[in-house]
Amino acid sequence: MSLSPVAASLQLSARMITLNHPAAMDCQVYRKSVSRTAHTDAPGETIGGLPLLGGVPVLSDEDEADVDWDPVLPEDQIHAKCLLLGGYSGSSMLDNGQGPDAPALQEARIEPLAAPGSPGYFELSKGDLIMVMPGGGVVFTFAVQDFSNTLMLPPYVPKVILAAQGDLTYIPSVSAAVDNR
């Protein structure tokens, strides 16, 4: 049951606009998976149930050195449509209007091609890798940094905050996907 039929209608409208907009680009979504073998509960290998990496507890997959990027759907499929909405700038942190140097961020709407609730539908997560393919064999890579929302109703019409990534062809699964374009 939805919180509001108006918000649900806005979500459906935003989805249709994203999927059918002439500037929307095909994209594929990759999710990080930890390649390191599972930890054991042997003394000295865990602290509080967390695996150790160089003697320090691993709190998130960002701390992992041995990771791979797996597509959320088969690699030969287009997973979603991406509509870049423009630059994103968070509020300044200081009274004088200056803030820390921040990476160039993009705001975007990304919608899976599959309908919600159907096989092939997925939800984006922070840290996902987005490969945007505008055409002609060109591939831009972004990482999902955060989500924003103009409706102030968290589950509805989220915008994705993307950070541009450099050349990621050193990752085998990404390199193979780029070579196939």
UniProtKB/TrEMBL annotation:
It comes from the Bacteria. This is Uncharacterized protein.
